[in-house]
Amino acid sequence: MKRRISNLPNLKLTMGNVEFDNPIWVASGTFGYGTEAPELVDVNKLGAIVTKSITRKPREGNPPPRIVETSSGMINSIGLANIGVEKYIQKMLPVYESLSTKIIMNIAGTDIQEYIEILEMVESVSSVIAGYEINISCPNVKKGGMEFGVDCDMTAKLTEALRSRTDRLIIMKLSPNVSDIVSIGKASEDAGADAVSAINTVVGMSITAKTGMSNIYTTYGGLSGPAIKPVGLAAVHKLYNKLSIPIVGIGGIVSEEDVAEYMLAGAKAVQIGTANFRNPGISEDIISRFNLFMAKTKWGSADEMVGQVNTHS
Amino acid sequence: MKRRISNLPNLKLTMGNVEFDNPIWVASGTFGYGTEAPELVDVNKLGAIVTKSITRKPREGNPPPRIVETSSGMINSIGLANIGVEKYIQKMLPVYESLSTKIIMNIAGTDIQEYIEILEMVESVSSVIAGYEINISCPNVKKGGMEFGVDCDMTAKLTEALRSRTDRLIIMKLSPNVSDIVSIGKASEDAGADAVSAINTVVGMSITAKTGMSNIYTTYGGLSGPAIKPVGLAAVHKLYNKLSIPIVGIGGIVSEEDVAEYMLAGAKAVQIGTANFRNPGISEDIISRFNLFMAKTKWGSADEMVGQVNTHS
Amino acid sequence: MQIEKAKILTNAEVAHNIWEMKFEAPLIAKGLKGAGEFLNILSMESWQNPLRRPMSIASSNGDVLSIIYKIFGEVTTILSNKRTGDYIELLGPLGNTFTHWQNGHHPILVGGGVGLAPILNLQSECKSAKIEHSIIIGARSSNEHFIDHNPDQQIYLTTDDGTTGESGTVMGPLERLVKEKANPYIYACGPEPMLEAVRDFSLAQNVPAQLSVESYMGCGVGFCQGCVIPRDSSQIQDHSYHHKYSLVCLDGPVYEAKDIQFA
Amino acid sequence: MQIEKAKILTNAEVAHNIWEMKFEAPLIAKGLKGAGEFLNILSMESWQNPLRRPMSIASSNGDVLSIIYKIFGEVTTILSNKRTGDYIELLGPLGNTFTHWQNGHHPILVGGGVGLAPILNLQSECKSAKIEHSIIIGARSSNEHFIDHNPDQQIYLTTDDGTTGESGTVMGPLERLVKEKANPYIYACGPEPMLEAVRDFSLAQNVPAQLSVESYMGCGVGFCQGCVIPRDSSQIQDHSYHHKYSLVCLDGPVYEAKDIQFA
Ligand SMILES: Cc1cc2nc3c(=O)[nH]c(=O)nc-3n(C[C@H](O)[C@H](O)[C@H](O)COP(=O)(O)OP(=O)(O)OC[C@H]3O[C@@H](n4cnc5c(N)ncnc54)[C@H](O)[C@@H]3O)c2cc1C
Ligand SMILES: Cc1cc2nc3c(=O)[nH]c(=O)nc-3n(C[C@H](O)[C@H](O)[C@H](O)COP(=O)(O)OP(=O)(O)OC[C@H]3O[C@@H](n4cnc5c(N)ncnc54)[C@H](O)[C@@H]3O)c2cc1C
Ligand SMILES: Cc1cc2nc3c(=O)[nH]c(=O)nc-3n(C[C@H](O)[C@H](O)[C@H](O)COP(=O)(O)O)c2cc1C
Ligand SMILES: Cc1cc2nc3c(=O)[nH]c(=O)nc-3n(C[C@H](O)[C@H](O)[C@H](O)COP(=O)(O)O)c2cc1C
Ligand code: FES
Ligand code: FES
Predict the structure, then answer these.
(1) B:44-103 residues touching chain A, CB 8 A cutoff
(2) pLDDT tens digits for A109-147?
């Protein structure tokens, strides 16, 4: 076993045609557009920022209450409140020119045409964005995303349509609320996605017994946070066993050990979500601590540990 | 609003042809065969005991490690270790004659024939059992249960086959690991089930970063406990909206308020699982505290609050 | 805006179920802009409760800040178990401040329940600036009050059950004071029904009012989009991505009464 | 078997990362059957860690019991933060006991790490019963020991790094003592590699041995079927529903060396 305590371990990775400084990214919808808390986090330290889902038109989102805490987790139903692609191009893309971290634009739509339109609008202007994460798995909008996320054919069609229109990185973001996440992942891979990310939130509900009220306006919302880490790990490991494209692990990551667990399960990179709400600087902290963690393990680089969990078999 | 502080609230309920003293039961696999801890719990106080899944032959179960704690939850992969139906008939049924609580026998099989055989063997002897919970949703066996739990047709066939062979209560136990739990519930209802119970455990995985080991021998196991309460509540509420048979709510219940939340979401009865491991007497405690809770609410009986969550709409 | 581990100086029950905690937070103290701002508090290592809890700043005195909190659920119970010398982790200062009170008005400060916290902070500022003002404090019963009824000092207490001060809600003294005082400006914080009553009254009487509102918060910094309230204004705020809603953590918690709606 | 809230009398670090806690548990104390039994401990209200933690009883003295624990993860850290006068909730006594040590043997007691706890309890019983015995205690280094090396009293310490007592593992003194003593019987508790070595040695030398083993426990009472170890015995136990496995919480934690397998 080689040990490299002296040098910082190598955290670089390549996905599609993009090189990332490290595998620790922030998840869509949990870090705004990346510019909200400059006093608290140096975003240039992050492996990537996945920006809040963008739709064709601005969306006001769902009425409050939109969020509620649960045991080791939270439920949200923001309803894809966002500024719309036009404003994203106009206001955000220029800002991203000055950041050295990679920007991944998360896109959501209600039909294939909407996804295509958004992507084409962004492709038509020059910008530094590294690629797209395609949200086919948001549980919080009535029409839309969700329908793709449970259907292999639709996922394949959407992936193909986008693939043919960009050379940038395409990551399909998968839903855990399905009987068989691997088949959706495989459909994405076969249709040309560069990677898949998993998981989006798990459908959940919260009620206050004393008042009899639902704590989320839309009744159901998406469960996230440490409570769902086991669900995310299982999804990533199953995908790793059957796919050859890289997997981005998401769900309940709050520490450097959680990052390592996801990588051992098969994730080449990870995204931190809910934890950013507790501490806007946590992702930066986790990157430092992951460096120390790696320095004490037998793995020479982050890449070497991907998928190497010992499963007793 | 009527308030009945003086009298104990009415907790009785009828499901199928069975009258239960109260809606608070213990969940299969979390209370053994009901006779394990007589010093710590008076089982006759419980609304019902759902016994550990029984298969046609005794099963040794999976190799250890079989369980591991997670944030506000645990993962298990017991692998349906059980004494088999013959010993159940021989040893347990006579014991149940002396209990005044209702016994619900949980059955698991690898194909329809196995379920039928088990049920017929029990029906062929005289006993006091109140009915059957049919486990079509165990994530921890290679062959078996799981296949039914994700497939409407198989669920319908199995339900019909069992329905035609018993007049006792039949509860189909549903898996949350599906794209559409309501369709499986509807298939059960249409095929003659008296009730459905939801949810069984959520597929999950656990890894120790330092050692790189999977903490469960079979890699994947079933997540239970408070972490999954939001998932159970959402499932119950969705089922309540579309089914007319009663729903038994399961998942993360550890307090009288959790019981009330499940009832507000649509459960006519509930089962307590993982919490029994922390405190073998907790279900009895929760029944007392639920009585006090009810006495302070506007609901005259437990039945009145079923499904009455206020969803802002 | 900072994250700071603050050392607890005192933590004591000041009225029934209502606690006051004082702590040293020099970094955050340096960034304060005025009464109305809040802190987002983390009370434990465990992730059982992943989210921080927002609490208004009730006073600031050099490096020492205080909060006044009601024991409501899990986290406020944990807060009340903290002892002198323990630490809590603060994110702050967050949010906007009460304004215009220095501009020649007679500020009428109205606090209900623990909504009193930012109102007491504003009272201190009025005192320091030697601005004549009145304060009305409402509660259900005398055991929830920890300040004395003192009309001579323009301190008016109300209780629903009449056990202290005037019987009834804060609206009694408020309606009276608005008539008595020249150029009144209302500043209120408290439970939603109280804020609605104050809002309706201020609009009907055409008296300006600022309300400090609460909403369920995920982050306090604009990341989560969880803390919205419907906004009655044409002024588009980018934070909430759409003019229909306003983010309480960034645009609030203090709003002109006319600008917000209640659900 | 009882659930009892026990008042903590003392809680202190006795060696590097190793703590001893004493508490009053009169109900549980009444039910004790002998050394080897354990408690299932709940250290908090929160459900962040839903499961209790099994800990061997290290001593019993009237109503006062003690445990010796190593700070391993979340819950043992919480345990170490408890102060005198705080309460912990115990479920116990659980499990079986060491046997045969009163039957004319020379008990050789072997404890490794915190596996020492039940071994110290057995040592006390030997002392009370005035049975001549030897004790071997292994650790990685001297800072993990809190008992003195004292061959005159038949107390033998070992350390991997030789900083105290004999250098090496417990196997050194064990092999020697087994030869020296008439009618020896080995009682061991400690990390799995140590137990495996003791087991193999006892089988090879045909010396009887009882081992106290650990396994991940869900309930401690036979509900969950989580705590199994593979069993090398034809004796069918109903608890685990099948002869292949044994439930450590009910059939164990003490096993005849020949009866169990290690993974
Ligand atoms: C800007 C602002 C300032 C506040 N100032 C004060 C104050 O000075 N003193 C005071 O006692 N309280 C204040 N609150 C309310 C306080 O945040 C809640 O009472 C506290 O979060 C309750 O936490 P808990 O864990 O004890 O209760 P829980 O059992 O978790 O929840 C009980 C109720 O508390 C509220 N709550 C819980 N979590 C949050 C959250 N993350 N964000 C907002 N509300 C939440 C909800 O209404 C919930 O129904 C303020 C809230 C806001 C938004
Ligand atoms: C019969 C028995 C007697 C024991 N006696 C002692 C003793 O006297 N002193 C002592 O220090 N330790 C003893 N242990 C081990 C002790 O239970 C663990 O060290 C403790 O649970 C660690 O908890 P944690 O939260 O600090 O660690 P965690 O971070 O939760 O876990 C670290 C490791 O502790 C073990 N563990 C965690 N939860 C459990 C559980 N529910 N059941 C069993 N193991 C678990 C696992 O190996 C896990 O990998 C005993 C275990 C058993 C089964
Ligand atoms: C408040 C909130 C808003 C979110 N918004 C989006 C979104 O707009 N698009 C998206 O793809 N995922 C969204 N997510 C899902 C997260 O990106 C992530 O997949 C999920 O929260 C699981 O990770 P976590 O457990 O680390 O939070 C959102 C999550 C939260 C909590
Ligand atoms: C250790 C363990 C064993 C279980 N065994 C069974 C089983 O044999 N049959 C079954 O239908 N469900 C079984 N379950 C699932 C529970 O009955 C219940 O559906 C699930 O644990 C969710 O409830 P909870 O969160 O209250 O634990 C088991 C759960 C656990 C934790
Ligand atoms: S609390 Fe998260 S955006 Fe306001
Ligand atoms: S710990 Fe649950 S059966 Fe042994």
Answers:
(1) 63, 70-73, 75
(2) 989 999 999 999 999 999 999 999 999 986 666 555 556
Query: Structural domain of residue D7, as residue ranges?
Result: 2-94
Chain C, window 19-58: residues with a beta carbon less than 8 angstroms from a chain D beta carbon? 46-48
Q: Cα separation of C48 and C45, whole Å?
A: 9
Pair D90, D119 in one domain: no
Minimum distance, in Å, between the CA of residue A1 and any CA atom of chain C:
34
Complex ipTM over 0.90: yes
Provide the 10 A C-beta neighbour count for residue C103. Answer: 10
Q: Is the same domain home to C76 and C121?
A: no
Pick the CATH number of B13-61+80-202+224-305 from 3.20.20.70, 3.40.50.12280, 3.90.950.20, 3.60.15.10: 3.20.20.70
Mutation to probe ligand 2, out of D16, D55, D120 (largest number of atoms < 8 A from CB):
D55
Chain C partners of A52 at a C-beta cutoff of 8 Å?
225
H helices of A23-151, where? 84-87, 93-97, 112-123, 146-149
| pTM of structure | 0.96
Which residue's CA is the nearest one to ligand 2's atom 21?
A: D53
Cβ–Cβ of A210/B257 closer than 8 Å?
A: yes
Distance CA(D176)–CA(D188), nearest Å, equals 16
Asked if residues C73 and C117 have their Cβ atoms less than 8 Å apart, the reply is no
Closest CA to C37 of C98, C103, C87, C81: C98
Query: CATH number, domain at D204?
Result: 3.40.50.80
- Per residue in A234-282, pLDDT (tens digit) is 999 999 999 999 999 999 999 999 999 999 999 999 999 999 999 999 9
Same domain for C150 and C62: no
Chain B positions touching A257 (Cβ under 8 A) are: 209-210
- The residues near D231 (Cβ < 8 Å, ≥ 6 apart) are D237, D243, D244, D245, D246, D251, D259, D260, D261
A-C C-beta contacts closer than 8 Å: 117
Whether C43 has its CB under 8 Å from any CB of chain A: the answer is no
Domain ranges of chain B: 13-61+80-202+224-305
Which residues of chain D neighbour B275 with C-beta distances below 8 Å? 50
